Structures are given as structure tokens and as C-alpha cells.
Amino acid sequence: MSLRFGQNDMSFKDSTLNGQHVRLEPLNEPHLKGLAHAIKDGQLHQLMVTSVPHPDQLQQFLNNAQIERSANHSLVFATVDQHSGEVIGSTRFMNTDWLHLRTEIGFTFIAKSKQRTAVNTEAKLLMLRHAFEVLGFNRVAFRTDYLNQRSRKAIERLGAKYEGVLRNHMVMSDGRVRDTAVFSILKSEWSGIKSYLLEKLNHH
Fold first, then answer.
1. Sign of CA dihedral 158, 125, 86, 103
2. In a 3-state reduction of DSSP, which class is residue 157?
3. Is the overall model pTM greater than 0.85, yes or no?
4. Domains in the chain, start-ordered, CATH in brackets?
5. What is the pLDDT of residues 106-148, one digit of tens each?
6. What is the 3-state secondary structure (H, E, C) of 63-107?
């Protein structure tokens, strides 16, 4: 089966994505200490409807990220405050299918003190722009726990369209069987959504 064309070499590059409020740096060892502080800001790892690593498990988190990166399935970022240089969270491209030009943005978490700021909007703008304008994807998906109302509303505020629910989709670490809500943005929708997100950022 031949690969489709439309991208330079059908692979992730270790690119840093820069905005006014945040920059997204490919996750590496020096980020882990700051990432532990970000997780402890709100005890994010204890929230039922999120998948956030325990601060003591970040080395394994990095190891897994590097394995996924080597397989060209995923690119994990540290979310860094552009002004202070502080690591305030993480996000990633994941479940990438280069043949069909689709990827997913997920496994996102942000320190509680930085939530409901411009951080998440700008980080998603940077990633969506990179996905559609640099990497040439046709589709970017978002998936979240059906019970996570805050996450679902945040995804909807990006302009993503709700596609439905994957029932009994995942078994969580506590044994709960999770239903997963699915959203997406298509390449044909990107121009309008980009303008919308830039307008949102101008209001911050």
C-alpha cells in the first residue's frame, strides 16, 4: 500500500511552537521537575476524569513518550510559560495515522493556576496550525472522558464538532469503564477556526 502525498517526509520534527503566552517544547528530561510542580498545582493526578501521571512517575511518562516518538505515532510537548519560562503542563499529538493524514491532540493537562487563561487556547492554536499548515493533516481529533464536562466544553470552545460517543471505550486505572466523547476539526474548517481562535486570544 503506497503512502499518500502532501507532506515533506511524513514524520514529526522536534519543533518548538512559539506563541505570545506559551511555547510548546518537545518533552525532555530537563522538563520533568517543572512538570511535577505543575501536576501538584491542583493535584491533577488525583482527578477522576483525567489521565495525568503521578509526579513520581514522570520518568516512565518520558520513556513512553520517547517510544511513541520513535514509532512516529506521537509528539509530546512540555507547555512552557513564555514569560516566566516555567513548565505549566503537557500536551501531545497522538494516535497519528500518516497514511490517512489524521492525528489527535490529547493527553493535555495544565497547572490549576493557569487554567481558564489564554494558555490552552493559544497552545491549541499553535498545534492546530502546525498540524494543518506544516504537517498537512486532513483531520485533527480530540477525545475526552464523557463525564469530563469541563474538558468537553473546552474542546467545543475551540470550534471542534462533536461526533459522538465511543461506549465502554477504555478501562481506567481505578477499574472504571470509560465512555469517550469524540470531536474533530477538518482541514476545510481550519481557516475559519483559526480566525475565531485569534479573535479569542485578542480578548485576553
1. positive
2. helix
3. yes
4. 17-202 (3.40.630.30)
5. 999 999 999 888 999 999 999 999 999 999 999 999 999 999 9
6. HHHHHHHHCCCCEEEEEEECCCCCEEEEEEEEEEECCCCEEEEEE
